[in-house]
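> call design_seq(struct)
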């Protein structure tokens, strides 16, 4: 494809992306994918050095091997002592020297305190500071770096939307109310310095990541394998999930796609209710799902965290990923769980 041809379609597709409905996006998915490919090869060739934080989590652990296989030179941001030339030491609550983060083509920021556990005042402060203060420090350092990255990909979460029942949510939906939506709003705003420095910046609003190594699924497996699992509350709350392989694939897609910036929902196209999720998980494990956890037990055991995370409902669609032509490997929950649990 010629450069002029590509640029003409860029303008047309960008207009579609901003004014069409999600159903229209889906109807042009394959068409967009073909024309977006002319940018994919160019971007992939231009990006070689990548700086990554949060590599010890399930997403970071899954991301490094395939990225290294693709030939990317990965440098990790680590807390504590540096043990190799491929590491940079940092403290999320302290300023970062611009020289330390200069010269990278892309930066993927995944670090953040786990939200699991009772939300005491101290826990809330750690959750907020690890995200807002850490992201602010990194964004400001990137903005002042001599050699700035082409793209800054920063974690956020679908907790941005709050508890919204069965409302279908996309990247244009308003934020919710409460502690987690407030943190997510501040988290995304913390990238402002990078955006102001003309660094293409993406905030990944991530759903429930299904991974064979920890995460939400890891915590659910033991009771379900023992046959004592079941729905949480009335089971009608929506769970917007994504297979970890698609999480990694979508991050790579973001790096290559110039048209993607701002918030991007990192979820599969087919969210499910908690009742459907637990029923499917039990079926894949060949176990019953007849021991529900009543809502009052969740609130007593986990407090605000349980009410927000376990009982809250977010029915989220990946409008930007679909519109930009990302080919999901796992759109069906059963296929994802079967693939993960057979390992």
């Amino acid at each position: 494809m010629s450069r002029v041809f590509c640029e003409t379609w860029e303008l047309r597709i960008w207009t579609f992306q901003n004014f069409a409905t999600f159903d229209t996006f889906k109807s042009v998915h394959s068409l967009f994918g073909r024309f977006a490919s002319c940018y994919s090869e160019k971007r992939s060739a231009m990006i070689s050095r990548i700086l990554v934080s949060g590599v010890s989590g399930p997403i970071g652990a899954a991301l490094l091997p395939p990225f290294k296989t693709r030939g990317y030179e990965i440098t990790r941001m680590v807390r504590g002592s540096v043990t190799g030339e491929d590491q940079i030491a940092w403290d999320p609550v302290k300023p970062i020297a611009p020289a330390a983060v200069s010269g990278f083509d892309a930066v993927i920021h995944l670090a953040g305190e786990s939200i699991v556990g009772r939300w005491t005042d101290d826990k809330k402060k750690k959750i907020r500071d690890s995200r807002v203060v850490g992201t602010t420090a990194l964004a400001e350092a990137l903005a002042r770096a001599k050699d700035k990255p082409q793209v800054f990909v920063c974690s956020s979460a679908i907790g941005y939307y709050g508890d919204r029942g069965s409302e279908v949510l996309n990247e244009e939906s308003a934020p919710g109310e409460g502690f987690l939506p407030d943190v997510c709003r501040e988290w995304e705003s913390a990238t402002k310095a990078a955006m102001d420095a003309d660094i293409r910046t993406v905030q990944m609003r991530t759903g429930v990541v299904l991974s064979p190594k920890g995460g939400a699924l890891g915590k659910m497996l033991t009771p379900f394998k023992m046959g004592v699992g079941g729905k949480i509350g009335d089971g009608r709350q929506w769970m917007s999930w994504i297979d970890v392989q698609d999480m990694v694939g979508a991050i790579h897609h973001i790096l290559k796609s110039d048209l993607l910036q701002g918030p991007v929902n990192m979820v599969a196209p087919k969210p499910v209710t908690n009742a459907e999720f637990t029923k499917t998980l039990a079926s894949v494990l060949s176990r019953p799902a007849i021991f529900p956890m009543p809502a009052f037990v969740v609130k007593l055991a986990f407090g605000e965290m349980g009410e927000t995370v376990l009982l809250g409902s977010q029915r989220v669609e990946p409008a930007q990923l679909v519109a930009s032509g990302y080919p999901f490997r796992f759109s069906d929950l059963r296929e994802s769980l079967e693939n993960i649990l057979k390992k």
